[in-house]
Amino acid sequence: MEPLREVGGRAIPFGAKNVDTDVIIPARWLKTITRDGLGRGAFETLRSDPDNLFDSAEFKGSPILIAGDNFGCGSSREHAAWALLDLGITAVIAPSFSDIFSGNAFKNGILTVVLPQEAVDRLMEVAKTDPITIDLEHQSVTTPFQDRFTFEIDPFRKHCLLEGLDEVGLTLARDVAIARYENDAATALPWLARTGQSLGEHTA
Amino acid sequence: MASKPRTLYEKIWDAHVVERRDDGTCLIYVDRHLVHEVTSPQAFEALRASGRTVRRPDLTLAVPDHNLPTTARRDAAGRPIPIADVESAQQLAALERNAPEFGIRLIGDADVEQGIVHVVGPEQGFSLPGATIVCGDSHTACHGGLGALAFGIGTSEVEHVLATQTLLLKQSKTMEVRVEGVLGAGVTAKDVVLHIGGVLRAAGGTGYVIEYTGSAIRDLSVEGRLTVSNMAIEHGARAGLIAPDDKTFAYVKGRPYAPKGAEWDAAVTWWRSLSTDPGATYDKVVVINAADIVPSVTWGTSPEDVVPITGSVPAPEDFADPSKQDAARKSLDYMGLTPGQKLTEVEIQNVFIGSCTNSRIEDLRAAAKVLKNRTKAANVRWAVVVPGSGLVKRQAEAEGLDKIFLAAGFEWREPGCSACLGMNPDKVPPGERCASTSNRNFVGRQGPGSRTHLVSPATAAASAVAGKLADVRELG
Ligand code: SF4
Predict the structure, then answer these.
(1) Where are the domains of chain A?
(2) In b/e form, how buried is each residue of B231-251, taking b as 16+ CB within 10 angstroms?
(3) For A192, which of B91, B131, B423 is closest by C-beta distance?
(4) Does ipTM top 0.90?
(5) B20-42 pLDDT, tens per residue?
(6) pTM, full prediction
(7) Among candidate residues B115, B52, B15, B335, the one with its CA nearest the CA of residue A192
(8) CATH topology for A6-171?
(9) Are the beta carbons of B103 and A168 separated by less than 8 Å?
(10) Which of A133, A192, B194, B371 ranks highest by number of CB atoms within 10 Å?
(11) How far, in Å, CA of B36 to CA of B379, rounded?
């Protein structure tokens, strides 16, 4: 994954509350086989309105989305995170997120920023006309008008995002421990460590 | 190590810890990974993009099921029959490409071993007692019927397991659901789990791994136990499991992937040691009297909406919780039912016998027993039996069950998920009702506007004959 230190630019002042994953990416897009291209289905229903924010000249391709409470509720579909990424969004600011969505967002390198409603309201105001900047290192969101809001983030998640580490990469770094487990299991629990039928090449 | 008494779940967990972190999260080793076409394409795509490989292709098995039509897959000349739905065809083709590319065995769409992933795993001996088993599918707990720790995962986790053969997990709380006593005539494993669902409610198991215990569970066949464990997710539980015993070992022995020879004997010794120790405690215990369980049926759009077949449709006011009252109102409206209506007066137009809950040979035998020398009622427009695998199909045909189904007016299909979910051509039309042996009665689950009543195979068969939801015990 790409390291993420700072996200800056125009932010889509969306603001809606309880945006569920079906709004972010309707179920009919779940039968895809790639993560790419899901941006076309992102907010599909809202974007059928020709005057929608997402496709306006001003906000098209913006890296930040500002939303209301409980963003990403509903089903656990990971497609919601993929759709946002494909739309060009790498950070979402909201007063709260669904747990599953923020987990999926993190796994896919999207920063979720939780700020109090007043701060979100102020950013919505600024976003209409000016860019905003999220600095992950210093855990702050700033505007050209000297606003500065700080946010909390799980230190582990922060570290992963800053370094561009994905969970798979982190676990692969534990290879020695995994290999040790496999060795022990091969002796202690051989019926689990391999199957009773030869299955071709073992590549580990 | 001081041996504090432990539960079955805790013993399996402890045996699979690769590393324990300070915050209690553990890196858990995965013994068996089942892969199907719906939740895997983006995981393989991510591996490819990052130049990663599959750590243990030998512990991974791929089989298509969700999207496959249940009609013939080869023409008379043995050529594949194209699949009309472009996206279904793409997902299936992706699995056919990805499995060989990453060195994983693929059971093909026309192989006799093909079937629903949760039927195939136990049938092949790939799923074993004491193993950790994952699959990108919410009904993976099914394999817990063998005494395995099995649960569903999302696509990122599928990628994680493919690349590392591990998962980062927090240990769940434990719940014992004990069913004591003897089940009455006509009461099956499906009725047991529907009844449990009604007691626990859809979220009662959230945060827990459930161990089903008690004499009524021990008396179930292994296939019946798979049926019970299959629906653990419908109580919100992460997984469900049942202690392995002699019946389990007899079931597993001799299957293609099962251990053999001296290794088999050592495995059995270990499996026996997994049972919950006397004195071990669960975080929660629910006790159910087997005598209270009768053939059950769902009336609403959540698996917790269970009533005895002898009962009637509840009224929203029957529920204390205002949000449940609201949900009940919506469910009744969607299902087109009136409070007070007797369940046995509800007419059905479709009957589906299949799904990973109820498509094994014993399920088909139970349905055929009811249907022998009987036919479906005229108002039942579509009645279908979809065996859980090609091997189940072959066995059923050897026993002549297919003839009984066909004579009763049922269709006899190729294995797959079929009408369990509206992802392939088998669907229940809008506004029509289906007596279904599957596990979910959600809005639109069997097709947009479909109305599902979850039942056992025997009840489904009896309902087909009556043309209404029926009490199999009345048929005699
Ligand atoms: S039969 Fe139904 S529940 Fe089982 S795996 Fe297929 S779709 Fe899922």
Answers:
(1) 6-171
(2) bbbbbbbbbbbbbbbeebbeb
(3) B131
(4) yes
(5) 988 889 999 999 999 999 999 99
(6) 0.92
(7) B15
(8) Aconitase; domain 4 (3.20.19)
(9) no
(10) B194
(11) 36
